[in-house]
Amino acid sequence: MRDNTAEKWLEKRIKKYGPISKLSLFGKPTVFLHGHAANKFIFTSDGSAIANQQTKSIQMIIGDQTLLALGGDDHRRVRNALTLFLKPESLKQYVGKMEEEIRMHLEMYWLGKKQVTVLPLMKILTFNIMCSLLFGLERGIRSEILVEGFQQMIDGIWSVPVNLPFTRYSRSLKASKRIQTMVKQLIHEKRVELKEKCASDPHQDLITCLLSLQNEDGEEELSEKEIMQNVMLVMIAGYDTSSVLITFIIRFLANEPSIYAAVLQEQEEIARSKKSGEFLTWEDLAKMKYTWRVAMETLRIVPPVFGSFRKTLKDIEYGGYLIPKGWQLFWASSMTQMDNSIYSEPTKFDPNRFENKSSVPPYCFVAFGGGTRMCPGNEFARIETLITIHYLVTRFTWKLCADNSFSRDPTPVPAQGLPVQIVQTRPL
């Protein structure tokens, strides 16, 4: 992963053993599945044959009640609760709040600078957006303590789960306990606000939204543990994946002048339709079709999530093989997204691949998952990505200061964090 040779290693396996092969990963017997048929099999399973399987390090650090770990009715219940906040109809009201965070970020970290390092700045941006919309937590000492512990927690998620002093895993476990304590305190505060009717809107942030849900008996739909762990999961997913996506869009736009020009033209047309200081609207985001195709092509070539695990709940037959109960299944998103039998010239950056949805076969583009396992936060990511790119291309130009290499740890990290020279072209 760190040498960025994982895809080549899997390609050799596929050539040698075909689209299905067995190996050992994280000390467990594992079956590696490849191809769009395998993707469909994994994402459309009803939960009776296969279920989500996370590594021990992820289970111990985040918990066992997250959307990644649950199956069946519990998965549907938690997913429906999260979707209530993350669906497009709900997110429309947060466009202005998100735009305000982005403007503030650019004023603080980009304005007046000659050079910036993109990835760490994008992580600051996505974290502040998450704090505001998920926790209802504004900038300050509390959010600074939270981000420090949060980063330590993330560092050990894909580490070897041996709890020895001074290891990444040990530090991550300790950070996780601190984060859980802080999130529990926030849940308590939001619960008090709801009971005292201080919350102006039950959808003002994710925690308040989840607390406001009740079952048929008038009790909270989700337990405190489920709320805490799934808020942490959404935080991790949005923090890492969105920051990586925006960072690599900036890199690709610097390398592709004609594509940059097309994005700039689309965004300039929208900017000209706005009065000075006027915020973007949901309708403006709907006009950013080409910009989103650029984002989709970025996700195809550099997916933030390399792959994922499942486990068999019973003996199953797939591809003419019997996979025993309890075995681990592994799939890698880039293996279909960079397949030259599916995409012509797969290494070429071509956003027009996504101009017509029917041109991409089902389950061949799985950056957001698929079926019942589709990422519920994909619309959230779309909004913050489009608003950020709008302000960057209409206010700045940039030039790369490092090569195009990147590694994975476990998400993609461009060389030196992607330092760029910037020139401001108009006021914020």
TrEMBL record:
GO terms for cellular component: membrane. Its cofactor is heme. Heme binds at residue 375. This is Cytochrome P450. The lineage of its organism: Eukaryota, Viridiplantae, Streptophyta, Embryophyta, Tracheophyta. It is a single-pass membrane protein. GO terms for biological process: sterol metabolic process. Belongs to the cytochrome P450 family. GO terms for molecular function: heme binding; iron ion binding; monooxygenase activity; oxidoreductase activity, acting on paired donors, with incorporation or reduction of molecular oxygen.
